[in-house]
Design goal:
By secondary structure, the protein is of the alpha/beta class. It has 11 helices and 16 strands.
Length: 421
């Protein structure tokens, strides 16, 4: 008989080392507090505007030119910096935001541009490049050897399955955990039996898969790892991070209502619990028709929670170590089309960053008066990714081996935007 009660750490250590789980008693594991979660360190939150947001109706209003349409500009908390009229809350935290108005790319196709803006690379049939989330999570995990977090290292909220969402050549352990509805606890994460019985079942499954492991050792190892990590997660007190009802009513009201607002609040809770990367998706920004009314509606869903997230992280002392990115796959055309819409335009667009050592209250780059060409300080996608790496203290030259035996760097060249820091 075991003399000391089995702790939650004992169980997690057993799962990571391959000990037969059914042999362990549960003891106080189920009630153990998440005190051994990974120490809070650097993290990243990506607010992804799916479809390509118009730069002119967001953070680069075109004042004094017909291409700006009827969109008005408003003052921000920083003298001389203006945002589009639909972003009054973001305007209040402009001193924490750095707007890059000179982003430039050549990709105007949604799938290719989305892949590029998530990985830093163009699609290539010989390699599946890891997304920014997988890069951040894997590199931060390497920096924090010995730390543990029972939650998935990468979480994506509100999006649908996409070709640009995987870990690629880094392996399935860095794939994102998908959560469609942030107001609901993740599906199938409530154990259907008592913990000891669940662990015995898992141990039996591993024994039954012995033949499979002999034939396909790599696939079997991935399968076993997935089940062990899933067990760690659903047995952990850290799952409480998904329960937004635990937040004070005042905080929930600060973020506002709606799926994106809940996603932003959940992102803060997950980062606070040790998750390295969270992506929150806002859909509907492909405004080929009725651009002005649609962007006003979408901004009404995003503006308040975006500003609340920045303030909340700052208030909790987390903003310096949490990089918050606002961007989409490209911008929209300066010219308004006959359907009162704006079409795809990667030649010049914007992105916004905050936290993570970035100096807020500034604008990087500009376009010409018509909003067509980058007139000052062009920033390419590799430059942007190199900037992300600098913020997260990640070496962008680290190489991973593609299946074909070709080394691939985390970032395909580029130079970090020094002015941001």
């Amino acid at each position: 008989m075991r003399k000391h009660p089995v702790t939650r750490r004992d169980v997690l250590r057993a799962m990571s080392s391959g000990v037969a789980l059914g042999s362990l008693g549960w003891g106080a594991v189920a009630a153990a507090h998440a005190a051994d979660l990974r120490k809070r360190g650097k993290a990243c939150i990506l607010l992804w505007m799916q479809g390509g947001p118009s730069q002119f109706e967001t953070f680069s209003p075109l004042v004094g030119h017909k291409n700006g349409g009827d969109t008005k500009a408003i003052a921000t908390s920083v003298a001389g910096i203006q945002f589009a009229e639909h972003w009054p809350e973001a305007a209040k935290v402009a001193d924490r935001l750095a707007v890059i108005r000179s982003m430039t790319s050549k990709e105007g196709s949604h799938p290719r541009a989305s892949y590029l803006m998530h990985t830093g690379y163009l699609p290539n049939p010989t390699a599946r490049h890891p997304t920014l989330g997988s890069i951040v999570a894997s590199q931060l995990a390497a920096q924090r050897a010995g730390d543990t977090c029972d939650l998935p290292p990468v979480v994506r909220i509100g999006g649908r399955g996409r070709s640009d969402s995987g870990a690629g050549l880094l392996g399935m352990q860095w794939d994102p955990f998908e959560l469609r509805d942030p107001t609901q606890n993740p599906a199938n994460t409530t154990p259907q039996v008592e913990p000891p019985r669940h662990l015995r079942r898992l141990a039996l499954l591993e024994r039954l898969e012995g033949g499979f492991a002999e034939r396909l050792p790599e696939e079997a190892a991935d399968h076993k790892s997935l089940y062990r990590r899933a067990t760690r997660m659903i047995m952990s007190d850290a799952m409480r991070a998904f329960d937004l009802e635990e937040e004070p009513e005042a905080v929930r009201q600060e973020y506002g209502a709606g799926g994106f607002a809940s996603g932003c609040l959940l992102a803060r809770r997950l980062v606070e619990s040790g998750v390295s990367f969270v992506e929150v998706v806002s859909n509907g920004w492909d405004t080929h028709q009725d651009n002005f009314a649609k962007v006003a509606e979408l901004a009404g869903e995003v503006d308040r929670p975006y500003a609340a997230l920045v303030r909340d992280l700052d208030r909790r002392g987390m903003l310096d170590d949490t990089l918050v990115i606002w961007m989409g796959e490209f911008g929209r055309t300066p010219q308004v089309n006959p359907n009162a819409g704006r079409d795809h335009f990667p030649r010049s667009f914007n992105a916004v960053v905050a936290g993570g050592g970035v100096r807020g209250g500034q604008v990087i780059g500009k376009t010409d008066a018509a909003g067509v060409e980058v007139a000052d300080r062009p920033v390419t996608v590799p430059d942007l990714f190199a900037t992300f790496c600098r913020s997260m203290a990640i070496d962008p030259t680290v190489e991973n081996m593609a299946p074909a035996g070709r080394p691939i760097k985390l970032v395909d060249g580029g130079t970090a935007v020094d002015e941001l820091f």
